[in-house]
Write a structure and sequence with these properties.
Blueprint (H helix, E strand, L loop, with lengths): L1 E3 L2 E3 L3 H34 L21 H6 L31 H5 L6 E7 L2 H11 L6 H16 L9 E4 L4 H7 L3 H10 L9 E2 L4 E3 L11 H8 L3 E3 L10 E8 L3 H12 L5 E8 L2 H24 L2
Parallel strand pairs: 3-9, 4-5, 4-8, 8-9
Antiparallel strand pairs: 1-2, 6-7
Length: 311
Amino acid sequence: MLPVCGRVVFSSSEDLTRATRAKVVEGENGFVSWVKAAAESLLATLFPSDCRLCGSPLARISRLPVCEDCLFRVRPLQGGGTCAICGERLTGSVNVMDQGEPGCALCRQVEPSFAKAAAYGSYEGGLRDLIHLLKYEHVRPAAGVLGRMLAEVVEKLAAAFAKGDPVLVPIPLHASKQRQRGFSQSELIARAALKLKPVGREWLLRPEILERCRPTASQIGLTPHQQRENVRGAFAVRRAAEVENREVLLVDDVLTTGTTASECARVLRRAGATRVWVATVARTMKAEATCALIKQDSDEMEERMAMAANG
């Protein structure tokens, strides 16, 4: 087509036809968007729903029943003031590890089997509620939001990985627990994170590598030594060939004491993994640990009772 005196002149009827079609498509797209927005508004009016975290009315229909304000308030951990290995908050005077980095008392006494653990945020407030929404209320779309947070953690750890990306292994539930819940939350979150991997990354998810051989008792009230004994022998590597001479990235929803992650890392290293890293969505800090464990135990009891009531 040729521009003439501010007008557009088409060189052929074919050009005119293409332009007409483009206008029609553009109009259809605009109309579809308008209808969709109107439908969402109408549904929200006829079938009002509240945010599952704060109780405020939701302005639009969504698979995830959480308002934008609650999602916005979930903030990542700020750098500094944490152990360089496990990520625990440091209190009092800062202690330095052999590598010249700050470390907590527990990591100085008994160094974990993993190289480093990192988390997106603190296990409190809206982040804790989002995780509970997935685990205990079975709102699976929450895994998408949590997966985006996990993807950020993995990308931050990536600078320390050796040549080649590590194998991603979700920390598994015991088979009886997974049957009761109907899914593994760590695997759901990991799969959501996998969809957001940067171009050029080879994140291989291998949930079948690690197995929880026996159920473990609650860690509440146990000393660090008792916690280690509680999980010792609870995990086994089923496909050692897939981790031999490779780095492994353990992924989970929450890192509480770090004992479970350390035991998983121990058996993976015995199976031939060169180094093991840990990435989680949340991490309990000292001030939150006791309350978080008690709350988790209470939620799990409610989940078991709900399952029993539903047969």
